[in-house]
């Protein structure tokens, strides 16, 4: 597995091993995405036509008091924002772009992972004509993903 980030392996209070990130990163570049099991539920990672029609879509895979695990599809660049209440770890499964954080521009692509500390101002700029998919892990749990702090560019 290619990667310039950190390896991901953590346990939630419910005891679910989050080695899903490494498995998904190994799927980068393949056309069909697997169905994974999170707890007792099977989750199909393929996007519906409605989700594909939106600029971005996010699907919760698991949530406990300690963490949220989310499946993200981004079809365009996101606004400048921060997450004032939680840290984010992301594993890019497909696509490419640039993560802007702390005054740095970091190229990212399939197999890369990165950590965004709580409160860090950031945004992802998508490469022209691409979309990306990523596994996000937040601590503590994210709650409503629409409640992030949008900032002026």
Structural overview:
The chain is mainly beta. Helix content is 8%, strand content 42%. The chain has a single domain, classed as Jelly Rolls (Sandwich). It has helices at residues 20-26, 49-53; strands at 35-38, 41-44, 56-63, 68-74, 81-82, 87-94, 96-101, 104-109, 113-116, 122-126, 132-139, 149-150. The strands form four sheets. A five-stranded antiparallel sheet has the order 3-4-11-6-9. It has a three-stranded antiparallel sheet with strand order 8-7-10, with no helix packed on it. It has a two-stranded antiparallel ribbon with strand order 1-2. Residues 1-31 have low confidence and may be disordered.
Return the string of H and E elements. Answer: HEEHEEEEEEEEEE
**Architecture in CATH?**
Sandwich
* Overall domain count: 1
Question: Segments where pLDDT lies below 50 for 5+ residues?
Answer: 1-31
- Radius of gyration, in angstroms, nearest whole number: 15 Å
What is the 3D shape?
Answer: globular
Characterize the largest beta sheet: strand count, sense, and whether it forms a barrel: 5 strands, antiparallel
* Structural class category: mainly beta
Task: Summarize the amount of helix as a percent range.
Answer: under 10%
The share of residues in extended strands comes to 35-45%
Short précis:
8% of the residues lie in helices and 42% in strands. The chain is mainly beta. It has a five-stranded antiparallel beta sheet with strand order 3-4-11-6-9.
């Amino acid at each position: 597995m290619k990667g310039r980030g950190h390896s991901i392996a953590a346990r939630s209070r419910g005891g679910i091993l989050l080695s899903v990130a490494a498995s998904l990163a190994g799927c980068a570049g393949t056309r069909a995405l697997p169905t994974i099991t999170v707890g007792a539920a099977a989750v199909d990672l393929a996007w519906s036509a409605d989700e594909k029609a939106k600029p971005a879509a996010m699907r919760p895979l698991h949530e406990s008091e300690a963490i949220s695990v989310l499946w993200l599809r981004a079809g365009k660049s996101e606004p400048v924002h921060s997450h004032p209440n939680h840290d984010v770890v992301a594993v890019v499964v497909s696509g490419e772009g640039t993560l802007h954080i702390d005054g740095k521009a970091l190229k990212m692509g399939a197999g890369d992972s990165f950590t965004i500390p709580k409160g860090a101002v950031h945004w992802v700029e998508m490469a022209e004509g691409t979309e990306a998919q990523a596994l996000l892990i937040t601590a503590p749990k994210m709650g409503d993903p629409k409640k992030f702090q949008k900032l002026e560019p």
